[in-house]
């Protein structure tokens, strides 16, 4: 574990496990790098170097008033990649982290990147517009902002239900998984959490996706109640040249933590790393 101080003075916390080709993980909102521990342990145990950071405003990183925007998130990732001299890396991003990875490639290219994985990722655009009728209405995101600004502790507890699909019949979601989600969520600063809602919902990543020129695996659950498959994974797969799209039937947004979905993701991730 270590910390990096960015050019604007924000301290970024990161984990660095194992040796070998780097696999760099970017987490979703409103979590932190701990949400990737299962996958970091997996790849480090298979001969890779696992790196994951807490996005600014989240977890153990600094909580600046400014800079809680997708461009700066991507620039923070770039500074981490440069500080650790990570090359030939595989970038893995979940949800908002998928947006971070996408904007990183859009702004900084793939000079240090060999492959990319987008898991339940927010690109190309979550917000419903005339050009994006499959997206979610602005009222959904206004509701998230209201929840964060109000009783955010209860809001995060409630959000864990749809995040992991615990509201579905037969769902194998433990209370422990939901409790961990709440604990991680309560570590994000209010300003960073609030600002990030606009970033993950209103940022248009279309042109960033077109800049991808490395093998890309896109994985999405078809029962994702947070980031709709039709507005995200399916559209991204059409924009990224030669992308591979894998749809997990019945899988929720937080599929990487849930039973057989986690097993499938681990198998697909390792196969992609080895390919």
UniProtKB/TrEMBL annotation:
<dbReference type="Pfam" id="PF00561">
    <property type="entry name" value="Abhydrolase_1"/>
</dbReference>
<dbReference type="InterPro" id="IPR000639">
    <property type="entry name" value="Epox_hydrolase-like"/>
</dbReference>
<dbReference type="InterPro" id="IPR029058">
    <property type="entry name" value="AB_hydrolase_fold"/>
</dbReference>
<protein>
    <submittedName>
        <fullName>Alpha/beta hydrolase</fullName>
    </submittedName>
</protein>
<comment type="similarity">
    <text>Belongs to the AB hydrolase superfamily. Bacterial non-heme haloperoxidase / perhydrolase family.</text>
</comment>
<dbReference type="GO" id="GO:0016787">
    <property type="term" value="F:hydrolase activity"/>
</dbReference>
<keyword id="KW-0575">Peroxidase</keyword>
<dbReference type="InterPro" id="IPR050471">
    <property type="entry name" value="AB_hydrolase"/>
</dbReference>
<keyword id="KW-0560">Oxidoreductase</keyword>
<feature type="domain" description="AB hydrolase-1">
    <location>
        <begin position="22"/>
        <end position="253"/>
    </location>
</feature>
<keyword id="KW-0378">Hydrolase</keyword>
<dbReference type="InterPro" id="IPR000073">
    <property type="entry name" value="AB_hydrolase_1"/>
</dbReference>
């Amino acid at each position: 574990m270590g910390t990096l101080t960015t050019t604007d003075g924000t301290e970024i916390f990161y984990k660095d496990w194992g040796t070998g080709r780097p696999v760099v993980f970017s987490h979703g909102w409103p979590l932190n790098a701990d949400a990737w521990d299962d996958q970091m342990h997996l790849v480090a145990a298979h001969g890779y170097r696992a790196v994951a950071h807490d996005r600014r405003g989240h977890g153990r990183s600094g909580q600046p008033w400014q800079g809680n925007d997708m461009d700066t998130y991507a620039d923070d990732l770039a500074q981490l990649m440069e500080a650790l001299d990570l090359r030939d890396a595989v970038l893995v991003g979940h949800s908002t982290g998928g947006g971070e990875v996408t904007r990183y490639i859009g702004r900084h290219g793939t000079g240090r990147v060999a492959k990319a994985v987008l898991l339940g990722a927010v690109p190309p655009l979550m917000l419903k517009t005339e050009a994006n009728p499959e997206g979610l209405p602005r009222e959904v995101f206004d509701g998230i902002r209201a929840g964060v600004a109000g009783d955010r502790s209860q809001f995060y507890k409630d959000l864990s239900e749809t995040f992991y699909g615990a509201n579905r019949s037969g769902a194998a979601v433990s209370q422990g998984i939901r409790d961990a989600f709440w604990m991680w969520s309560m570590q994000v600063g209010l300003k960073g959490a609030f600002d990030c809602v606009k970033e993950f919902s209103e940022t248009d990543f279309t042109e960033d996706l077109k800049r991808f020129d490395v093998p890309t695996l896109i994985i999405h659950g078809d029962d994702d109640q947070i980031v709709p498959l039709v507005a995200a994974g399916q559209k991204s797969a059409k924009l990224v040249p030669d992308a591979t799209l894998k749809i997990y039937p019945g899988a929720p947004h937080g599929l990487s933590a849930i039973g057989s979905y986690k097993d499938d993701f681990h198998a697909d991730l390792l196969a992609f790393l080895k390919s």
